[in-house]
């Protein structure tokens, strides 16, 4: 009985304190950590926000390890990262959906660049077809790149972080990992998996006392990188198509301040919360109002743009 009483008081006091702390941080920015000299691995670094994050990390005096399946893409990112001041840049052709290749390249990274202390799982692909029209091979690939690759990179790089009780796991998921979208079934499944995985391992680490290994889960709405070219947003003020540079900066800031969830734009926090509390029929009406039912109708993506 005494335990129940004491534990309840403790939880109540901590709850009040953490809410006050959050409120204070609306006005006072969090202290940023110093990541100079850290080894940062970015998957899918050959274009889009992977490249921009590489440049941002480079400017913070880090050692960069770049993975991509696009040789020209990583070469260009490596050049830009050096220009931005990276301590050292290592680039590797690595298909992160291939478990054996991930383990092989991880061994090479450890030999050449040392232990990775910031792992950014960023590589991603999208089929862009209605589920029944999507070829099985593309559905499989989407899950392999967008979620299973995260399992293999964690297996490869997390042990050293745990041993040092120091590190940061960054999952570039999506708002499609929080809310289902008409026309994005396999992508949403893969991103929900990425969110659930990163969240669960983060809790596993906390439960074992490894509080020096941080997790950041990033859930952006559309970003203007080409991946979702053709898609239009119905109310750009409420749900703007995001500027890649802005997204990269927000992600780096989230890492530097150990922010666990980063949803972009800000309205996404509200929309995600509403999804879970509104009556279903009202949620559907709201989804239609926000254009969520027709988001993918005009999708072209990278490939069609290049044709
Ligand atoms: N663009 C958006 O609207 C948007 C929105 C939310 C989340 N995201 C996510 O952000 C991440 C980055 O997307 P982006 O917009 O910069 O797209 P992008 O297409 O410009 O970049 C993705 C990169 O991943 C690489 N890649 C693909 N498959 C790979 C594999 N098997 N192994 C290694 N690299 C591989 C590609 O070559 C490319 O360089 C993705 O995970 C994406 O799902 C994008």
UniProtKB/TrEMBL annotation:
GO MF annotation: an example: oxidoreductase activity, acting on the CH-OH group of donors, NAD or NADP as acceptor
UniProt GO cellular component terms: lipid droplet
Gene3D superfamilies from the UniProt entry: NAD(P)-binding Rossmann-like Domain
Keywords, ordered alphabetically: NAD, Oxidoreductase
Pfam families with a match to the protein in the record: adh_short
Annotated PROSITE patterns: ADH_SHORT
InterPro entries associated with the record: NAD(P)-bd_dom_sf, Sc_DH/Rdtase_CS, SDR_fam
Family: Belongs to the short-chain dehydrogenases/reductases (SDR) family.
Protein name, as recorded: Short chain dehydrogenase/reductase family 16C member 5
């Amino acid at each position: 009985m005494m335990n129940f009483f004491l534990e309840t008081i403790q939880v109540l006091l901590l709850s009040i304190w953490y809410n006050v702390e959050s409120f204070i941080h609306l006005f006072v920015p969090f202290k940023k950590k110093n990541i100079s000299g850290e080894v940062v691995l970015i998957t899918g670094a050959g274009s889009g926000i992977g490249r921009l994050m590489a440049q941002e990390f480079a400017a913070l005096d880090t050692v960069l390890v770049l993975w991509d399946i696009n040789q020209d893409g990583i070469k260009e990112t490596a050049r830009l990262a050096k220009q931005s001041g990276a301590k050292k840049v290592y680039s590797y052709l690595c298909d992160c959906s291939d478990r054996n290749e991930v383990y092989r390249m991880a061994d090479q990274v450890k030999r050449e660049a040392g232990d990775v202390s910031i792992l950014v799982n960023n590589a991603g692909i999208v089929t862009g077809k209605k589920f029944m029209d999507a070829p099985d091979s593309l559905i499989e690939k989407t899950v392999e790149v967008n979620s299973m690759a995260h399992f293999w990179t964690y297996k490869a790089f997390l042990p050293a972080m745990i041993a040092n009780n120091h590190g940061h796991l960054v999952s570039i998921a999506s708002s499609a990992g929080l809310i289902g979208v008409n026309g994005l079934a396999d992508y949403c499944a893969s991103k929900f998996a990425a969110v659930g995985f990163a969240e669960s391992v983060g809790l596993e680490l906390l439960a074992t006392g490894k509080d020096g290994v941080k997790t950041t889960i990033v859930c952006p709405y559309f970003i203007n990188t080409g991946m979702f070219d053709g898609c239009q947003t119905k109310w750009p003020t409420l749900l703007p198509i995001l500027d890649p540079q802005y997204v990269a900066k927000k992600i780096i800031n989230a890492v530097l301040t150990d922010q666990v969830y980063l949803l972009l734009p800000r309205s996404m926090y509200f929309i995600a919360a509403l999804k879970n509390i509104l009556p279903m029929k009202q949620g559907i009406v709201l989804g239609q109002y926000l254009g969520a039912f027709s988001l993918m109708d005009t999708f072209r993506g990278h490939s069609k743009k290049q044709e």
